[in-house]
């Protein structure tokens, strides 16, 4: 039938779970919230401004009470919105200033300290092979972001007031789902060796629309995918001085989840390169190579939506233990109703 005066319906990839998730965050009342990219899919919406407006209308129910600290994802790349497509993102968010950035890269990477935790937010499109935005911008910083990252990691590890280094970024170095984005060799080439060198404790990502985490990883196999090497297999208490734990936390509310696509047994599709632009779509098609995912620790196939909460115990004695207790919550109902999926503990000794 024909409907007159059709009401506006948002044309992005959101779902009602996006509303529930925001209210779930507020139930826990965290000190701050990390938002790991692909915020509202404005770059594939017909009305970009309205899509951003809907995003803020939803998330301001929490962001008015506590900082929501973002990382740029591939869907923040809007063709025509600034020289490399991130001008809307750069305009909407106020983040800590970073020395050495240009007008082109302003606000795309930054860091801040809360207590004994140093948080580093990265913009992965600079190093990933996947052509996932409105334009292909790999290499746009010409190495500036990587140089800043190494300097930042070195400073954090030499600061005895900083115990924990947490990286927040969008695209992933690990994933065990089929027929979705996959892991990206560019991250394994550019970022992961630095995470290893400076002992990053935790990496939180999005991009894949499910929840999973790795064993602590350090080092890479000498193969085409640079497969990460797991250094331990315990899943309850993890010593992060032995390796970095990667978490994929992509259940923020998209209508296209990936939790039903897990390989069994775990495998990973790694994007190792891209082809020439397709003459019709203009997209560079990814080239995938599969690997066995011995680094895979925990996956959530039962629920599509959720988020993780992190409780830092700084410890009480110089040089004594400090922990981060991590709980992943499934969002299971309206008004942000939550059910714990798993809890585990990250552990290391204080740096003082």
Q: Would you give an account of this structure?
A:
- The protein has 352 residues and is α/β, with parallel strands linked by helices.
- The protein is 18% helix and 30% strand.
- The chain has six helices and 18 strands.
- It has helices at residues 16-28, 48-63, 87-92, 144-158, 185-190, 192-197, and strands at 33-35, 68-70, 110-114, 117-121, 164-168, 183-184, 202-205, 211-214, 217-220, 228-230, 237-239, 245-249, 267-277, 284-292, 296-300, 306-313, 321-333, 337-349.
- The strands form five sheets. Strands 3-4-5-7-12-8-15 form a seven-stranded mixed beta sheet, covered by helices on one side. Strands 11-18-17-16 form a four-stranded mixed beta sheet. The chain has a three-stranded mixed beta sheet with strand order 6-13-14.
Which parts are unreliable, with pLDDT below 50 for 5 consecutive residues or more? none
Largest sheet features? 7 strands, mixed
- Count the helices. How many? 6
Rg over alpha carbons: 20 Å
Within the largest sheet, what's the order of strands?
Answer: 3-4-5-7-12-8-15
Portion in strands? 25-35%
Broad shape? globular
Structural class comes to alpha/beta
Quaternary state reads: single chain
Write the element-wise H/E pattern from the N-terminal end onward: HEHEHEEHEEHHEEEEEEEEEEEE
User: Could you estimate the helical fraction of the residues in percent?
Assistant: 10-25%
The end-to-end span amounts to 71 Å
